[in-house]
Amino acid sequence: MALGGATMDERVPRDFETLRATILERRQSLPKRIAQIAAYALDNPDDIAFGTAASIAASAGVQPSTLIRFAQQLGFDGFTSLQQVFRERLRERNSSYDERLAALRAKAEEGAGHRAIFDGFVAAASTSLSDISRTLNEEHFEEAIALLAKAETIYVLAKRRSYPVASYIAYALGKLKIRNQLIESAAGLNAEMIGFATPADAVIAISFSPYAPATIEETRTISDQGVPIVAITDSSFSPLAQFAKVWFEVAEADFGGFRSLSATMALAMALTVAVGEKRRESGRKKA
């Protein structure tokens, strides 16, 4: 079938990165149920690679027929063809850390002692750091640094599991003598704090699934004020992504169901220090 001078076969994504980009490009126009499975697929690519149509549909909360329609929307002849792209992604990955983590989980379950727990968390952290080193978009990184460096005040917004990262960013920005505001208030004055933000400022917003409702609402409010947002999240379908001028997708490995923050903290540290360096360079040029 020809479509715009290209055959349908030529338009089918043949690798995971192309597939991901295609889904992101079309996400606003996808029907509700197909968008739901698309979000699940990008958030859980390993499950898509290994699951059956029935198990994936159950986990994603859709009918198995939705998987077929999802695949066909992307130009595949069926779900099995689409699934091959997810399986190929796993084959291309460096699996050494994944294998080590699986072995440590097995060791811990066999009663290898508390050291196995420690080793498991170290392996999970190593996996997370390896993944972000491989996948970080340098163009987005530079764009975020430039945006934050020119801000009059940097607002930092996060709740729950993400809060330690926000707290560190605020601490480090203060040490670098960069005006910032961590949005937290025991007196319930978050809305008033946010109200001071202007388009001359910037926000770093951090949230991971299941996304803290307060973070999403406060990010929405500050976005409506025209304040540019840099988001750190875990999915291209995260509610934070729709508000952000620049956003980073950070996939953290877990051990025993406890998810690491290693990659997120590394990104936060790098952003903070790079913003300080960028401002220093700008000040030197003005002088």
Automatic annotation (TrEMBL):
One of its GO terms (biological process) is carbohydrate derivative metabolic process. GO terms for molecular function: carbohydrate derivative binding; DNA binding; DNA-binding transcription factor activity. The keyword NADP does not apply. SUPFAM superfamilies: Homeodomain-like, SIS domain. Residues 144-281 form the SIS domain. Keywords: DNA-binding, Transcription, Transcription regulation. Residues 17-93 form the HTH rpiR-type domain. Pfam families: HTH_6, SIS. This is RpiR family transcriptional regulator. The lineage of its organism: Bacteria, Pseudomonadati, Pseudomonadota, Alphaproteobacteria, Hyphomicrobiales.
